[in-house]
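ok new one. same drill as before - structure tokens go in, u give me an amino acid for every spot. 76 of them this time. try not to just spam alanines like last time pls lmao
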């Protein structure tokens, strides 16, 4: 499975924070195997799990919801 932007961003954020997979797993209450799977794109984390991981790294997750036909910004 190829990496999505989220997979790369999770890995990059963890590395920028100077955390090992083991340390991030401990801080986020997620297994090391799961963190590895998320970073490699084998598995996609749920929104709740993504929030826990990002919080453990020091980030805040913000979600924007919109109706595509009404509010969506134009895509190029």
């Amino acid at each position: 499975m190829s990496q999505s932007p989220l997979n790369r961003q999770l890995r990059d954020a963890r590395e920028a924070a100077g955390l090992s997979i083991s340390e991030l797993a401990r801080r986020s209450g997620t297994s090391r195997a799961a963190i590895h799977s998320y970073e490699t794109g084998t598995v996609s984390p749920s929104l709740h799990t993504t929030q826990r991981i990002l919080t453990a790294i020091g980030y805040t997750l913000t979600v924007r919801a919109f109706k595509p036909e009404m509010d969506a910004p134009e895509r190029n």
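The chain has one domain: 1-76. and btw The chain is about 55% helix and 0% strand.
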